[in-house]
Design goal:
Order of helices and strands of chain A: EHEHEHEHEHHEHEHEHHHHH
Largest sheet of chain A: 8 strands, parallel
Mean pLDDT of chain A: 95
Strand content of chain A: 5-15%
Helix content of chain A: 40-55%
Largest interface: A-B, 37 and 37 residues
Radius of gyration of chain A: 18 Å
Oligomer: homotetramer
Shape of chain A: globular
Number of helices of chain A: 13
Low-confidence stretches of chain A: none
Number of strands of chain A: 8
Structural class of chain A: alpha/beta
């Protein structure tokens, strides 16, 4: 049941968007084309059916279809991670092992969250330990309080990091102190991945191994560039790149959500397309704001080089 | 597509718990027995697959099975409401029309909530209007910020109440000012149901039509008694009953969640059974606290008579 | 040190605004005129230098001046309560005994709040017990989380209500469940006063003794009318009055703060005048909104009669 | 009115604790001794009567006494900053100019915060601009949402940084993204100082000029060491020092507040003494926890060298 060969999760992973046609059906060809473009970058791998992939809007069948298609479209050196967290323990285990069967290297398991006040550290510990015991691939904890209202704090991560099948965490709150506390308390080799492009460099500075960044769907090379600047100790350059990425991180991802990111993809040569309802399409003013951010961003990145 | 015959939603509705066996499979016989007991009360009807019914832990097949079973077990005079809210608009419509086909009188539609910051009043309005347009039975808005992080405020409820197929709201925040603001702003005949036993009487005082109360699964007669005292203007008695229900509302429902309520059912002659994981079973100290609340509550209710 | 003669705090108290001249100096004549008008109502008494009195903008000398002036302007049957809460225990005791010396019947003592995370129930208990021990007049607890970030919960109130010199609480959160929990847990005779006009009637319904209502500065008769309707069991009328007061409570007090209330006073025949800086004067659109609320309110109250 | 000679605020400043005797009176000799010890470090200067100095518990006379004493005890090369923020604009201006008269180089001006909902960006802008216009020394904005409930966001800081007499900000939220956004948007030369030792290094990484750190009262050399490691580009060392400071930052400052910090000072050869009431003295278990943190910290720092 346990996975023992080490998986190197350092680097940048985009949580892929899920392309839809105008009628909200899956746009498989466009997915393949997006992946083909990402294959030509230095991205470390892909997360499929994460939050940005609109996982909560997908049926079980659609989810498995997406996993299979990306598996086929990606070369073996790209690490594939499937988002498999559901509200019930049994459903999460079921999804995780489906992903394993389809050749995924690891699963990203979001905290259950509907019954917030019951999701105490003890309840979360039991949940993740049960899933880890039953999963045929290693799992990463996924803490995303802006969506779930639940944050996994360092003491719980430390406790879970002792399990051989729990190999990392995606921490998406943007709280750099929490990243530092997690880094300081987990076993060696446990991968702390940051899920917020706006705090990527400061998180790397305190010891994060990499990032699962929605922004990397739109700006993969720029995110990878920041990663390498930080890793190679080019502080000035890393700071400059981080500051230049801030408005994009804020507008494309945080303010306008999946719809904003998909619009940006359309502007940048990928397929974005519509988000599923109830997400609204972007207003004209939002489109204009993103256009300006992308323009200003382009200028700033160039001057930083 | 629209439903025009008026449905009287005043009174008390329990959101039924979903009985499970020890292996987490549906315990259908026990469900039937619980409903048979509730049939002998003055409850106005039942909500099936609401939050308390652990809707988010159920598969689509289980959900439809539960709807069919309760439909069969309940007499025609009990109003049946199905919880049908999903994250995507299309899935909510699909579930709502399944419930219609199975003979449900109305659907309770929770706010989508995962992408919280995108769930603006405009996005929620479009969501509920689309669902209402497509639904073959009338719908109620379900606002439960303690689980979703999203509250539907009075101006939006007023706007939605203009749609002929949106006939009411379950407002579960416990915020009595919000109940009053909604009552003051919706069209006549729109049913404001409170989803919090701890504020049932003050909510009725400002004009709520009734309640969908998890506590009514455990204490149906006492909740109905409070409803009638409030309606018939017995202020002293209503106040006393409300204060006596407070500790039960807090312990059985708010503090210990579905597990606490199910434990109480087991103590009170219904079938409670286990909750699905990741919900934990109750600790011994929690059981003890509930036992004490039930004992003290029994004493207080008696002295109030 | 203890005060034993009982003080009946039922009814409606306005927390008086502090009139300033255009140069921000105290406008004593206008204060006297306001009090003279309030003397002709059925208000139970006055709170001086509460939050609405801009207590935190006043020097020690100004505070004592205001206490002396209102003492002189008010007839003996009006109960006078002084706001005396400071951040340090010693300063609060000092102010409370100054108010006692100037003839005040009781002191309203706000929770210290700057060091929020340190203000545990134990720290607050020690604070209030020390102040109560040292005070020459009885004190009321003042819990106003919208300003302080600190709420005093029922178990702590129950504990403090055992002290003979702590005779009541002003609970301003608008949380009716909390009011009910406090009523259910304190000793008999302990006065629970609500500090939110928007939830006045539902709070009275669950057992509050009265209210300290900023709205009563502008609309004293209407607040008193609601109080008497609720007390005499006229449910329909109380509900109607409460709903009619909602927009005024929201606009005049919650949305636009002291500046909004002072503007309303100017419109209603009292002296409002400017608030002290950094409070801004009202925008034209805010003034217009208040004008409309006052107009609509007038109409609705009349039709309710 | 304006100050034009540039003041270099880079480096580490402790916000000095205010020593009290057992009877809560000022302990002036102990203050002088503490300052004498700090004079032998590389601290850039001192903040007097900040939050950590229990400013809100001090009378006006005590405040001025403290300013005068520290002025006398500190050598000219240490930059002196006075905490002068009060709730009213006029009182803040009065205090700021008292500090100027006593020889302080700058004033640290906390956001007014009692009437939170009225403290909009426009109201805060007017406040800081008025104070800056009237102040005879330059001012720093002080944003400390954990105490005030109010955060000053980057667009407002950018706007205020245009005023020649507003020369910097102390940002104490620990939100590194906000630090980065401020750095990216203010005029050149505007000093962004971080007020949270737990995020000192990541904040420096994104461009902060230094820190005003409560932890630097207890561990001045270690904070200065981290500052210099970060500034000289020793990433590994800076990361290690930051992680080693985390438990101290959390326990001594965040969890146990001023009482925890003063206890630590007593353990480390400074005078700590009691905090003023209502702050409680430390429990034995809290003391024990701090003892352990100081011991573990000492070990870790040594091994990092």
């Amino acid at each position: 049941m346990r996975h023992s060969s080490p998986l190197d999760l350092s680097g940048v992973f985009p949580p892929l968007t899920t392309p839809f046609n105008a009628d909200e059906s899956l746009a498989i060809d466009q997915l393949r084309e997006n992946v083909a473009q990402y294959n030509r970058t230095l991205l470390a791998g892909y997360v499929v059916t994460g939050s940005t992939g609109e996982a909560l809007f997908l049926t079980h069948e659609e989810t498995e279809r997406l996993w299979a298609e990306v598996r086929q479209a990606a070369p073996p050196e790209k690490i594939l991670i499937a988002g498999t967290g559901a509200e019930s323990t049994s459903q999460t285990i079921h999804l995780t092992n489906s992903a394993a069967r389809l050749g995924y290297a690891a699963a990203l398991v979001r905290t259950p969250h509907y019954f917030k006040s019951q999701m105490t550290p003890d309840a979360l510990a039991e949940y993740f330990l049960r899933v880890a015991d039953a999963a045929r691939i290693p799992i990463l904890i996924y803490s995303v309080p802006q969506f779930t209202g639940i944050a996994v704090e360092a003491p719980l991560v430390a406790r879970l990091s002792e399990h051989p099948n729990i190999i990392g965490i995606k921490e998406s709150s943007g709280n750099v102190q929490r990243i530092a506390e997690i880094v300081a308390s987990v076993r060696a080799g446990f991968a702390v991945l940051v899920g917020s492009a706006a705090t990527f460099y400061p998180s790397l500075a305190v010891g994060a191994a990499g990032g699962i960044l929605a922004l990397a769907c739109a700006l993969p090379n720029e995110c990878v560039e920041l990663y390498h600047a930080a890793r190679s100790g080019e502080m000035q350059r890393a700071q400059q790149l981080q500051l230049s990425l801030l408005p994009a991180a804020t507008s494309l991802v945080s303010r306008f959500g999946v719809s904003g990111l998909k619009y940006s993809l359309d502007r940048l040569g990928y397929y974005g397309g519509p988000a599923r309802r109830p997400l609204l399409s972007l207003s004209e003013s939002a489109k204009h704001e993103i256009d300006e951010v992308l323009a200003a961003f382009a200028t700033r990145v160039i001057s930083a080089r």
